Amino acid sequence: MASIKKINNRKYKITVSNGYHPDGRKISRAKTISVPASVHNRSIQQYVAHEAEEFERTVRTGYCEDGEMTFEEYALRWLDRQTKYAPSTLGFYRRSLEAVYPYIGSIKLNRLRPIVLEQLLMELRKRTFRGQPIQETTVQKYLSVISAVLSDAKRNEIIQKNPARMVDLPDTTQRVQRIPTDREAADFLNTIANIEDPYKTFYALAIYTGCRRGELCALKWSDFLVDGYESILTVIRSRSMVPGKGIVEGPTKNGKSRIIFMCEDMTNLIRSYCYDKRQEALDGGFPFGDYLFTNEKGELMHPDTFTKYLRQIYDENGFPKEYHLHTLRHYFVSTMLHNGVDKQTVAELAGHGDTGFLERTYCHPQMRLKRDAANQLAYSIFDTLDNCANSATV
User: Fold this and answer.
1) Which H helix or E strand runs over 4?
2) What is the largest CA-CA distance in the chain?
3) Omega cis (within 30) before 163
4) Cβ neighbours for 161, distance < 8 A, ≥ 6 positions apart
5) What is the DSSP string of 5-45?
6) pLDDT value at position 157?
7) Closest CA to 66 of 20, 32, 31, 108
């Protein structure tokens, strides 16, 4: 039962006991309230009783225990507990949180309100990148990270609501990924057929498996299980560049492994590449390593090397400026969707947690199907009209 102490006519102190510490000391929480002037004198006692009941419920359910912790303190603890994310993802979370600590880091969790977060977003919108204002989508990514921290606090019954979920956000312009046409993909494959390894095999695997750059850089020979003319690839880990830490190896982006079946042609490509790497190690006098993508000395290659070399290939062969290494992954996903593979299967092959990201990002396959349907309908209609016109003439 809450204890109520009157300080003056419109100020009261509410105290709630909630068990005992291991050393026998009583656990209690206190709160001082001021009755608004809008509350009539006759209703003061009713108002105070209601506040006491609400405060007692909050204390009993545990929402007060850690609510006094600041956002920065809780966020740092939250980061330390995350094990399912790739190092690059955790690095992004950490940098995003460091950007918002000056604004909300010192605010207690139970004092964080939507209006404070809205003011934070207003300040973030003033930031620039390479002389240009940052995009609204980037601003809202900061809020998404904040929301992840606050959702964890809510799950642990430290706060009752996630204020980040209550922020009123403006609409953002959805960026549609530019995907290579089938002809461009064929030209690209013909181009890389004439380049040296390990680049040829790296880019071939990128477009065939849809793996991310870090996942390809972390592939080991033991990840392939050869079964006759075909093989099975298990994607387990990722190697990424994390600012301040260098190259870090960890789990895949969603923390899960996935299996990709390799056709005979790709299996033969891997076999040939493996033979060349063994011969390279033998000629160079160094041990044959565990990883696929190493340089001529058997050393692991920096992930950025593959990105920069591909940019050079694009420029020398007239591919669009918008294309990058991730474009090969986009083509993989887009082609599967366009050819009728169900979204859940595509999401699993691409390493997405669910189909939501596919639906938000890869609208182009559906648009292509709609355009094809429209063209087919137009052909049918105008063909019928032409036939009718010819019949009337006759």
Assistant:
1) strand 3-8
2) 106
3) no
4) 154
5) EEEETTEEEEEEEEEE-TTSPEEEEEEEEE--TTS-GGGHH
6) 77
7) 108
Please give the pLDDT value at position 75: 94
70 forms bridges with which residues in the sheet?
Answer: 108
In the prediction, which pLDDT does 384 show? Answer: 59
- For residue 174, what pLDDT is reported? 61
pTM of the model as a whole: 0.64
Cα-Cα-Cα-Cα dihedral sign, residues 61, 66, 72, 73: negative
Contact, 163 vs 113, CB < 8 A?
Answer: yes
Amino acid (one-letter) located at 327: T
pLDDT < 50 regions, the chain: 365
The b/e string for 366-389 (b: 16+ C-beta within 10 A; e otherwise) is: eeeeeeeeeeeeeeeeeeeeeeee
The two tokens of residue 38 are 């809008």
DSSP of 47-112: HHHHHHHHHHHHHHTTTTTSTTSBHHHHHHHHHHH--SS-HHHHHHHHHHHHHHHHHHTTSBGGG-
| pLDDT at res. 91 | 86
Q: Residue type at 135?
A: Q
Specify the pLDDT at position 383.
63
pLDDT at 347: 87
Task: Compute the distance between CA of residue 144 and CA of residue 166 in angstroms, rounded to an integer.
Answer: 12
pLDDT at 62 (0 to 100) = 55
Contact 235/223 with Cβ under 8 angstroms?
Answer: yes
3-state secondary structure 231-292: EEEEECEEEEEECCCEEEEEECCCCCCEEEEECHHHHHHHHHHHHHHHHHHHHHCCCCCCEC
The pLDDT assigned to 79 comes to: 93
Q: What is the pLDDT of residue 158?
A: 83
Instruction: Give the containing element (helix H, strand E) for 230.
Output: strand 230-235
pLDDT value, residue 386: 61
